Amino acid sequence: MLVGEYRELYHAYATDESNRVNAASGGAGSALLISLLEQDEIDGALVCNTVIEKAKIRAHFSIATSKQEILDAQGSKYVETAFMKEALPLIRQFHGRVAVVGLPCDITNLTRWIAKDNDISNKVKLKIALVCGHNSRTELIDEISQQLMKEAASPLRSYRFRKGHWRGKLEAEFLNGTTIRKPFSYFSLYQNLYFYSEKKCLVCHDHFGYQADISLGDVWAYRFKQDPIKKTGVIIRTQQGIDLWNSANRSGAITAEVLEISDILDGQARTAPFHYNVSARNRVAPMFGYKIPDNVKARVSWHAWLTALFTLFNMRWSESSQWNKLIFKLPRPLLKAYLYLRKGIETLP
């Protein structure tokens, strides 16, 4: 099944409104971690933080040991990270039990290490995967941040990729006191077209975090758009996940209702099938000089092939030092039309 094996499904949000302020969805992940920390179920949570390094937006891992540190790490990070390089040493150096939050590929790598490293196995109490379509290289956010800094006439002080209801807004704060908020599409227009996508994402088929105890992500089903509180889709896969989720739920930290699998699938109806279908990208890859192994052997329809063609063309375009500057010179309405065309083809049955 596209979603993978699961035990329970929920639509949830942090009961405490203050725990939802900077969340990309309903803050259920933050509420879960805070509750487990306060109940002494874990001693820390490995999280990813957005930081500003030499006026550039980057993401780095840390182990949060307090409620505030967990809240400081809220929000999506659409920029490449170094999970194996940063996270494993942090876990090894930490004295205590940890919950680990990562992308599906991170959790898969962590699961391999748990199987062969007793030290890591004994420390990791919970694996949480964040539903992921793909991630982007630093070149994309560097270009976007340069545009924002030019508008503000000041270096960056802080940045959030996405916050607020539904798709939300990006938020950038600058050293001169200026704050700029723009629709998330200011960034996602390029990201959704796979400009500057990480290469590893082309060979990945795991959209939902198959190796996690709990997977968390947005449910973009249109019927939820008018809900006053945006909620997090929760996929619980293991008994460990059930036990720790119930512990947080009983504490009142999380408000949850049962979700149907059809809601999960409807909410990811366009991106999840494309992500899974590595076979389509495998067919197109030689045209652009890529090698993409086919590890799913999925059926490749004409429109899946065409969507893969668009994706790899945009990838190769953004890698061209001769032509990639043209991407940001194209009128945004033209790029939007291109994106809508891609989405339209992607949603064909």
Automatic annotation (TrEMBL):
The lineage of its organism: Bacteria, Pseudomonadati, Pseudomonadota, Gammaproteobacteria, Chromatiales. It comes from Candidatus Thiodiazotropha taylori. Residues 10-86 form the Coenzyme F420 hydrogenase/dehydrogenase beta subunit N-terminal domain. This is Coenzyme F420 hydrogenase/dehydrogenase, beta subunit C-terminal domain. It comes from the Bacteria. Residues 97-258 form the Coenzyme F420 hydrogenase/dehydrogenase beta subunit C-terminal domain. One of its GO terms (molecular function) is oxidoreductase activity, acting on CH or CH2 groups, with an iron-sulfur protein as acceptor.
